Amino acid sequence: MDKRRPNLFRLFCTSFVIILSIIAVDLVKRQLIPVTENIIPKGCFKSGVSSPVLPVSPTSYKPVNFPNSTPQNISDDQIYNGCLCLINSNYPAKGLESDLVSLSQVKNDMYSLENDTLMFNAQAAEKLNQMMSDYNAATGLSNLVISRTTDYPSSVYTEQYDEAVSGCSFDLAVSSSDGNVIPYDGTGTESWITQNCSKYGFVLRFPADKANTTKVPYSPYHFRYVGDVHAAIMTDGNMCLEEYLESLKMYSITGQPIKYSLNGINYLIFYVKKDYSSEDPDLKFTALPVFSNSEYTISGNNSDGFIVTLINNTP
To answer: What pTM did the predictor assign?
Structure first.
């Protein structure tokens, strides 16, 4: 018995040293090999394309033929129209949204209007109705008020935003229990709108953490329609409109378009730099690829190019 005890002791010591060595190696690996996670709550990027989080410099672009596409000439004026136009003090509005409807004629009963003169983009109005219906279903409330859409004055707010003329933005207010209409502050039960607006194509236009970029203080009540897929990408990448439009310039049709899937629909998104193809100053246009077998939209960015969004197609 006395001879076995040293052997057992040596076995115990050896095992202890081995365990310590394993733990040490594991700790070293954790330090040298970082663990990363990508969480995309609403959609996903396809073919390994990463979220365009960082703004980049514009890329050169020359219109080229693309499979299943034919060139289409887009006039200079179209660069100033569309739901992705950036309108601010640096890029004043030069075009007017033509597809406007009277909200008083198309709204549902789940929200109110400050007045019956409010006009809104037709597609955005449809999405607004869906959002307000879902807000009512989720909270049981119908206390929200659309206070301002285009350039009409408001009795609730004193601020006036340049992009109001586009017809794609609105200010939100709340009808309180005492009958007063107060500014929406993004808190309480009503915060459902801020948390879910991107599902309907809307974004909070001036977030608190983007004030240095937008040059506009936090405005929890001011929302902008940009379209479902663009709102999802902006939300995933925590980008304001300025950052998103700048980052899109690295995704051209000749390089690496954005491939994104949302709600079972595949999207292909790319930027086309303005490139006048006519020497006649009265015939300024840019040649954009048009996909005859796909649904697509084209929006100007109000400065130097166009954003093409292909729906249900991955060329």
So the answer is: 0.78
d(CA 184, CA 132): 14
Residue 140's Cβ-count burial label (10 Å; 0-12, 13-18, 19+) is: exposed
Any bridge partners for residue 192, and if so which? none
CB 157 within 8 A of CB 150: no
130-179 confidence digits (pLDDT tens): 999 999 999 999 999 999 898 777 888 888 888 888 899 999 999 988 88
Residues 200-238 as b or e (16 or more Cβ within 10 Å = b): bbbbbbbbeebeebbebeebbbbbbbbbbbbbbbbbbbe
3-state secondary structure of 263: coil
**For 171, phi and psi rounded to 5 degrees?**
-105, 140
Q: How is domain 44-84+239-315 classified at the CATH fold level?
A: Phosphorylase Kinase; domain 1 (3.30.200)
Fold observed for domain 94-225: Muramoyl-pentapeptide Carboxypeptidase; domain 2 (3.30.1380)
Residue spans of the domains in the chain: they are: 44-84+239-315, 94-225
For the segment 12-60, what is each residue's pLDDT rounded down to a tens digit? Answer: 566 555 555 555 544 444 333 333 222 233 466 554 444 444 344 333 3
Nearest one of 107, 112, 103, 182 to 141, comparing CA atoms: 112
Radius of gyration (Cα) for the chain, nearest Å?
Answer: 26
Q: 3-class DSSP state for residue 122? A: helix
pLDDT band per the 50, 70, 90 thresholds, residue 285: low
